[in-house]
Amino acid sequence: MAKYRRILLKLSGEVLAGQGSFGIDPERVEAMAAEVAEVAQSGVQIGLVVGGGNFFRGVAAAAKHMDRVAADHMGMLATVINALALQDALEKAHVPTRVMTAIEMHEVAEPYIRRRAIRHLEKGRIVIFAAGTSNPYFSTDTAATLRGLEIHAEVVAKATRVDGVYDKDPLANPDAVKFSEIGYSEVLSRNLRVMDASAVAMCRDNKMPILVFNLTVRGNIMRMTTGEAIGTLIH
Questions:
Q1: Which of 19, 127, 200, 233 has a 20 to 30 Å separation from 206 between CA atoms?
Q2: Which of 91, 115, 92, 90 is nearest to 100 (CA)?
Q3: What pLDDT shows up at residue 61?
Q4: The pLDDT of residue 193
Q5: How far apart, in whole angstroms, are the C-alpha atoms of residue 215 and residue 233?
Q6: In terms of DSSP bridges, do strands 181-182 and 155-160 run parallel, antiparallel, or are they unpaired?
Q7: Higher pLDDT among residues 104 and 18, named by residue
Q8: pTM for this entry
């Protein structure tokens, strides 16, 4: 039985690239959609935010010399490409899905309207929130936190390539120690960089728990929603 009735799931764009470092791997997107669809079909309401790193990292070198606002808008548009790819895969898995964008583009997606998003969730549709917050200088972590709070999600679940929060980078330090639980303030004071500081602070101020878990293990999204002890809970 699901522990959470409504979740905000944050995925990195790089996850959709699979073994590649750029673009979209159709097999990876299909596998990801199958997992998310299984959770949705169990009755959990899912809001989803996906980053744009699989596209924007590819032009990051050029963006270093660009105006920050223009570069951030490019990143937001990259998230729309990923959202449309996920929507297509989810609907092929027989789950009704809506893409809502913070930057209006009526031909491809609905504009983000909070009440409409909640209504979609109540009707069993997955809602993918794209284009960040429409504001530069804000990351997709912050966008995910904001949308999670707006739709009254019970948890912000951040899916990553590692299995939780460590005291230092576990990929570079074999002796890194994993936390099963940790407080918001400790994450900020230790500068653990699991999410942007602004996103962690927003969750702290609004008592929104954050669950960080490994997305590369099949079945972990379902395990997370049922309350199985995986990853790290920040609260």
A1: 127
A2: 115
A3: 57
A4: 83
A5: 15
A6: unpaired
A7: 104
A8: 0.93
CA pair distance 170, 231, nearest whole angstrom: 13
From CA 172, how far away is CA 228, in angstroms rounded?
A: 27
Distance CA 146, CA 49 (A): 11
Query: Could you give the CA distance from residue 26 to residue 172 in angstroms, rounded to a whole number?
Result: 30
One-letter amino acid of 96: P
Pairing of strands 232-234, 210-214: antiparallel
The SS3 call for residue 64 is: coil
C-alpha Rg value of the chain to the nearest Å = 17
For 153, the token pair is 């999600």
Q: Which of 60-69, 114-123, 128-137, 222-231 has the lowest mean pLDDT?
A: 60-69
Extended beta strands in the chain, E state = 6-11, 45-50, 97-101, 110-111, 126-130, 155-160, 165-166, 178-179, 181-182, 210-214, 232-234
| DSSP annotation of 103 | S
| Token representation of residue 142 | 């912050």
